[in-house]
Design a protein that fits this description.
The complex is a heterodimer of chains A (351) and B (158).
Chain A lengths: L2 H7 L15 E10 L12 H16 L8 E6 L5 H9 L5 H5 L4 E5 L4 E5 L5 E8 L3 H16 L6 E2 L3 E2 L11 E8 L1 H5 L3 H8 L4 E4 L12 E6 L7 H29 L1 H17 L5 H16 L10 H8 L2 H7 L6 H17 L1
Antiparallel strand pairs in A: 1-5, 1-8, 2-3, 3-4, 4-5, 6-7, 8-10, 9-10
Helix pairs in contact in A: 3-12, 8-9, 9-10, 9-13, 10-11
Chain B lengths: L12 E7 L2 E7 L1 H8 L4 H11 L20 H7 L7 H4 L1 H12 L13 H22 L3 H16 L1
The chains are: A alpha+beta (351), B mainly alpha (158).
Chain lengths: 351, 158
């Protein structure tokens, strides 16, 4: 199969970039943590209990309890090679933790808008992922999936504390809603620290794109709710929407100002970024993301044309170590990855 | 001051977190702070959260463990993570402290699962109606209050 085809088939629904506010908002995600009442949480369950939980979930799926989800397969983590695991994590379908641990599994639907991790930190981690800013839609979908499981299982829940989870940071709604934003305008105009600092005072978390502890690459940031207890899910989503709408406005404003004040300097940076991506023979992921961010900004501001703006999402996933190894179907050393990454990017930019 | 995570080394770094306008500060030694900043240390963050909780001076009950999963209080304090749903009852007092600190609130108002049954839903509705009733009385909307009172009575009968 040609590289082109492999990449096309690798696109998750969220990567297509056709959601609302897609010039800034990359993707929206809602994750629900759920546990089965009759078993200890995965971290304290015996191997046979872990196995039982997995079997139960598989049976529920087999008997049609989850039929409407369009899930084609249950993927057991121990049955797939490391490359595949890392690739799933690069696409945000499973967590890095699940990719590393030797047990558990995941149910993924056809367009990869729904994934359910089994025996990660909690028995179930139901996730829905959508393109652009669609937190409300993502919550509705995740909640529907939750209902399908709720019909077949007895959840660990109390009227006082809500959904009981392994970690106290998830208890209550068990919900983490997050939106991934591309913020080059704020970054280049030096306002990023101020804006992100301000919003982090109103109960939201700002992180790099791979979650907790990860650094921001390519000016891509993830904004999510900090509190999971004491508010209704819908209210948490609305509050998050209000904050992100503000950030999106400020980002678009900053871009207009950048383009207006010194267009030549900006277009020089964009075209230089293009020059490097189109010609580099060796490139690290950090460097690649830095230039792709500029390229995408250039496309959004019509400085350059002819490239698919999706290139940002594509590189967010495909330029990661796990996915590169999957695409080229071999284990790659860090140096080899930098070479293959450069090769892949030249191919993508050429089109 | 000693590091609130390991309790062994001198604290050198302070981390401030603001949740619901409530400021919490934790003090860490270099080693623990470094650990908590690493991409791989999801666990360290939870340790940090565990470290944020003022455990008070009450002594740890070493003999007690959760009947559901065998988790001991020492383990809970170390990792800041629960072992099973039953832990929430076993360590009820501690749970309230931890959750209060981490979340700022302690009462769930979100989704109710089918498995929790009709009663949980009725209870929730009752609580909400009672709150509305109080507001109506305070604002002297007596007709609304009467209607709310009737609905509460209706629920009580069911």
């Amino acid at each position: 199969m040609s590289l082109d085809n492999i990449l096309k088939q690798s696109l998750s629904r969220w990567m297509t970039g056709d959601g609302p506010n897609n010039s800034v908002a990359i993707s929206s995600r809602v994750r629900l943590a759920r546990n089965l009442a009759e078993y200890p949480f995965p971290g304290r369950a015996s191997p046979s209990q872990l196995e039982e939980v997995e079997q139960k979930v598989r049976r529920w799926w087999n008997t049609g309890g989850l039929e409407s989800l369009g899930i084609t397969d249950y993927i057991s983590i121990k049955d797939i090679p490391e490359n595949e695991r890392l690739a799933l994590a690069d696409k945000h379908l499973i967590s890095p933790k699940l990719a590393r641990q030797g047990y558990g599994g995941v149910l993924v639907n056809k367009d990869e808008s729904v994934s359910v991790m089994v025996n990660e930190e909690d028995h179930l981690r139901i996730q829905s992922l959508m393109s652009g800013s669609q937190l409300r839609e993502a919550w509705n979908l995740a909640s529907q999936v939750d209902d399908l499981f709720d019909a077949g299982f007895c959840y660990a829940w109390s009227s006082q504390t809500g959904y009981l989870t392994c970690c106290p940071t998830n208890v209550g709604t068990g919900m983490r809603a997050s939106i991934m934003l591309h913020l080059p305008g704020l970054a280049f105009s030096g306002q990023l620290a101020l804006v992100l600092g301000t919003i982090s005072k109103v109960g939201v978390m700002v992180r790099g794109m791979f979650g907790e502890g990860s650094e921001a690459q390519g000016n891509v940031y993830q904004i999510s709710n900090q509190i999971t207890l004491g508010q209704r899910e819908e209210d948490i989503i609305e509050a998050l929407n209000r904050v992100t709408d503000q950030v999106i406005c400020q980002e678009l404003d900053a871009r207009q100002k950048l383009a207006g004040t010194d267009n030549l300097a900006l277009s020089d940076r964009v075209w230089r970024a293009y020059g490097i991506l189109a010609n580099a023979r060796v490139i690290t992921s950090t460097e690649a993301m830095e230039y792709v961010s500029l390229l995408r900004l250039g496309l959004d501001l019509n400085i350059l044309e002819g490239l698919n703006p999706r290139i940002l999402q594509e590189l967010l996933v495909f330029a990661q170590p796990g996915y590169l190894q999957k695409i080229y179907n071999q284990v790659l050393s860090p140096r080899q990855r930098d070479v293959k990454r450069a090769e892949l990017i030249r191919e993508l930019v050429k089109k | 001051m000693l590091c609130q995570n390991c309790g062994e080394r001198e604290a050198r770094i302070s981390i401030t977190q603001i949740v619901n306008n409530k400021k919490t500060e934790i003090h860490l030694c270099h080693q623990c702070a470094q650990q908590s900043g690493q991409a791989d240390s999801v666990f360290a963050l939870h340790k940090m959260l565990a470290g944020m909780v003022d455990w008070g001076s009450d002594s740890v009950d070493k003999g007690k463990s959760c009947p559901g999963c065998g988790l001991t209080e020492v383990e809970l304090r170390q990792n800041g993570r629960f072992g099973c749903g039953q832990c929430y009852q076993t360590w009820a007092t501690l749970v309230n402290t931890i959750i209060g600190r981490v979340q700022g609130r302690t009462a769930h108002t979100g989704k109710i699962p089918r498995s929790a049954g009709e009663r949980a839903r009725a209870q929730r509705e009752m609580g909400e109606l009672k709150e509305k009733l109080q507001v109506a009385i305070r604002e002297e909307r007596f007709e609304d209050a009467a209607r709310l009172r009737d609905r509460i009575r209706g629920l009580q009968k069911d």
